[in-house]
Amino acid sequence: MTDKQIKILAAAIDVFAEKGYANTSTKEIAEKAGVAEGNIFNKFVNKRGLLHAIVTPVMQSFFPASMDTFVKTQLTKVYPSLNAFITALVQDRFAFLKQNSKVIKIFVSEMLYDQEVRAQLTTEFTGAYWHRINQQLDSLKANHLIVDWSNIEILKTMWSITGGAILGYLYFDQQLTKTSTDHAITALVKALSY
């Protein structure tokens, strides 16, 4: 991409994250990027094309790469307790969220409204992720460190509690402080204790 196109994408990320896709105009994006509005249409055709230029790389490259890193750094360890497992996962994912909040906010918004994005999301979870997370949960169950539920029920509980904190951070200006992170960890450990 040219420098101008990169400026347009960066501006679109900022404005979409701040105002939402529906409430953003191409004129606002062009002004923030310091370019003429026509430059947006030259490369991206329309506002939807610009949104897809953000979401598609997230789905095809950014998301799989981040999941691969997560698998290699967090899901290959042996955890001595449920608390250690939950703490490592929550702290890692919350740190990732803080570093990438604008793009994640755009992606989550699109995932909620676009069936195609939701369908693609389910295919982007790598086989390595599912293998390692199931292996971790099975190991914790075998050692009587976590409830003896199906792995999908355990994951839904984890996603529910952390999802509330994530949505609060992305959409309601609720900070992910040490205290709120500790509360999410405590809630998960209590919910999933054997």
From TrEMBL:
<dbReference type="InterPro" id="IPR001647">
    <property type="entry name" value="HTH_TetR"/>
</dbReference>
<feature type="DNA-binding region" description="H-T-H motif">
    <location>
        <begin position="25"/>
        <end position="44"/>
    </location>
</feature>
<dbReference type="InterPro" id="IPR009057">
    <property type="entry name" value="Homeodomain-like_sf"/>
</dbReference>
<keyword id="KW-0238">DNA-binding</keyword>
<protein>
    <submittedName>
        <fullName>TetR/AcrR family transcriptional regulator</fullName>
    </submittedName>
</protein>
<dbReference type="InterPro" id="IPR050109">
    <property type="entry name" value="HTH-type_TetR-like_transc_reg"/>
</dbReference>
<feature type="domain" description="HTH tetR-type">
    <location>
        <begin position="2"/>
        <end position="62"/>
    </location>
</feature>
<dbReference type="Pfam" id="PF00440">
    <property type="entry name" value="TetR_N"/>
</dbReference>
